[in-house]
Design a protein that fits this description.
By secondary structure, the protein is an alpha+beta fold. The chain has one domain: 4-Layer Sandwich (Chorismate synthase, AroC fold), CATH 3.60.150.10.
Length: about 400
Amino acid sequence: MLRFLTSGESHGRGLIALVEGFPSGLDIDKSKIDDELGRRQQGYGRGARQKIESDQAVILSGVRHGTTTGAPISLMIENKDWDNWQEVMSVTKVNVKDAAVNEKLLKKQIKHFRPGHADLAGTIKFRQRDIRDVLERASARETAARVAAGALCQQLLERFGMKIAAHVIQVGSVRAGSVQFETLAELEEKIHDSELFCACPEASEAMKDLIKSTWSEGDSLGGVIEVLADGLPVGMGSYTQWDRKLDGRLAQALISIQAMKAVEFGEGIFASANKGSLVHDALYPAAGQLPFQRKSNRAGGLEGGMTNGERLVVRVFMKPIPTLLRGLDSVSFPDFKAHKADYERSDVCAIAAASVVAKAMVAIILADAFLEKFAGDSIADIEAAFENYRTYLSNGNRQRQS
């Protein structure tokens, strides 16, 4: 089983990702991890924090001479702004009688809840005295660690011919038109020049205009991200238990990203309002690698909680960032009196960055399902199991296996 954990705070020394269950023998290209981290910091509508940080991963364990060893892999992303936060985020007690130290603590104290964030529930749940103790861990800065872990998993998947891409298809009320592409490499070429990672140039410019006007209003915007995956073998995931269904696992992973509120697979929303004859993907004989084919993919590559050989299509819906420059009505803490919400340096729209995080989370879940299906402690073991399965699919899948 592949699993990962993250630790660290937004303004602490750094962030840590721990990936366990990764097979030995995979050559790791660290530059690909750093490229994904760099993409997470891009996007029109981002705040000043991105001018401070320049994220790169430091691999601390689990890789030797550029190759995975089978041991847990730990990665660290340093916070470049740590020098300005050492007293405020110190892990040891500080001298509050020191006037300079006390001034820094008071300046960074959060005294008014920000509606839409974890502030209220988290402060009450953990009996905190300062809302910052919640803000620091709940912050989307944590997603840098997820992206590092996801970049590792993408390299594993690519070794076996699987490719993942993500693009922005909507910001606020502006939705991109249909864009045709045969391969995910073509899609990535289309989004390369877009500050919003949108494949439709006209929509990308309209999105930027909307973000600019929203920025001037002191407000924020959300949007919709589409994540796609090609080359997935039939049968990843399972129908046998609720918690092994791949669509359920993907949905949980995507919803766990800060500010995400809904997930759609394939044409799920369309399907809910139409008849079955217009929804389900009919099967036809074929003479290729698989003995069947489809003319549509409204299911988004998943049936019964398993991959079915078609392209995975999943969309995740992001709410507007709840930190508003103009401030929402709120209450103070700990006296709960009427007040405007505090403002912590934030973005107007982080949809482009969120698309990189969504891609990472899909990669992590797919890598876990892949290793579950083709279990092995080393790449060599996995390759043998994978090739055996491919032979079964192409030659003997109509015969019952003994």
